[in-house]
Amino acid sequence: MSTSKTLAVAVAAFVGGLLAANLPSALASAEPAPDLSKRSFTVFIDEVKQNFVFGDRFTGRYTKTVTLSDGTVREITLTPMVRDGMQVVEFRDTGGLTYMSLDGTTTNGTLMVHLRDDASADAALKAQGWKM
Asked: pLDDT tens digit string along 3-55?
């Protein structure tokens, strides 16, 4: 094979690889992003030694300030959003920032935050025969 044909095949393979690697995010961004600000969630916030929040439902944004047993004050903010084509919840904890799933648990030191997507949880219970 000639050098120009080899180069053309290599370039075509490279471009094909780029397209294949970016296809999931391209497809995700082509669909309209869901409005997560209207979705209902339930949050549980605990310290290993005590419970701060048990089952607060919220939509949009949730903010709570808690004082841990050692006197440390923490401000928790949870904001459902679409980031990089994925439905996530932005989790801010007194200056720290991370992302968690719509149904998940994360810890930061002795603080634990558990989040439940109410629509998914209710659908699962209905599928099991529960009356909602």
From this structure: 555 444 444 454 455 445 555 555 555 678 889 999 999 998 988 778 889 89
CATH 2.60.320 fits 36-127, yes or no: yes
Residue 20: which H helix or E strand, with range? Answer: helix 3-30
In the chain, domain spans: 1-31, 36-127
Amino acid present at 69: S
Q: Which residue, 83, 127, 125, 128, is CA-closest to 101?
A: 83
The rounded Cα 72 to chain-centroid distance in angstroms is: 26
Number of neighbours of residue 127 by Cβ within 10 angstroms: 8
Cα–Cα distance for residue pair 36/56, rounded to 1 Å: 17
* Verdict on whether the full-model pTM lies above 0.70: no
Q: Are 31 and 91 in contact (CB under 8 A)?
A: no
Q: Which 3 state secondary structure label does DSSP give 4?
A: helix
